[in-house]
Write a structure and sequence with these properties.
Length: 184
């Protein structure tokens, strides 16, 4: 049973106690408080997914902003099947993929030259080395790697998101793992 939120002015505590579905419905109806509560709950997950996919804090911040600025419109298409958190991460992934496509269309300096993660001196910590190796992967390999190994998407879901076959997804993951293992 979902909690219904009153349509008039909310008590701040009621917003924070409401479930995501009720907040989504209220935000769809124009509640800035509900939108703020959804932001508080899900901004970190959206930012983290975008950062892992894009490898750039600035680009991840842009995706975070794009997702939440567009959230009231996107909620019109939200069908409340499954968890809201999973749905908004999927929106973040799609927004990140669009950012990657835009980035690949224009001339873009390499991550190492831009002062990103790959430019830092090597450290003995294997987890740091692994993060750097993942960040240094070519975009198509990094996207599949992050979606599969970090976000937990199936190859079928990745194929649908990226417009590739399941076999292509599996092959990209294999190639990504090969490069990561060499670097770590």
């Amino acid at each position: 049973m979902r909690h219904e939120l009153p349509s008039h002015n909310w008590v701040r505590g009621a917003v924070h106690q409401a479930d995501d579905a009720a907040l989504a419905a209220a935000a769809r109806a124009g509640s800035a408080e509900a939108l703020a509560a959804l932001y508080e709950r899900h901004a970190a997950a959206v930012f983290t997914a975008a950062l892992r996919l894009l490898g750039s804090r600035a680009d991840a911040e842009d995706v975070l902003q794009d997702v939440f600025v567009g959230l009231p419109d996107a909620l019109a298409r939200y069908e409340e099947r499954g968890a809201f958190g999973a749905w908004i991460r999927r929106v973040a992934v799609r927004t990140s993929l669009m950012a990657l496509r835009r980035r690949s269309r224009r001339a873009h300096e390499p991550l190492a030259a831009a002062g990103g993660l790959a430019a830092a001196p090597p450290e003995p910590d294997r987890s740091v080395a692994a993060r750097r190796a993942i960040a240094a992967l070519p975009d198509p390999l990094r996207v599949v790697f992050v979606l599969r190994e970090v976000e937990g998407y199936s190859h079928a879901e990745i194929a649908e998101l990226l417009g590739i076959t399941r076999a292509a997804s599996a092959l990209r993951l294999h190639r990504a793992w090969k490069l990561v293992r060499r670097s770590v």
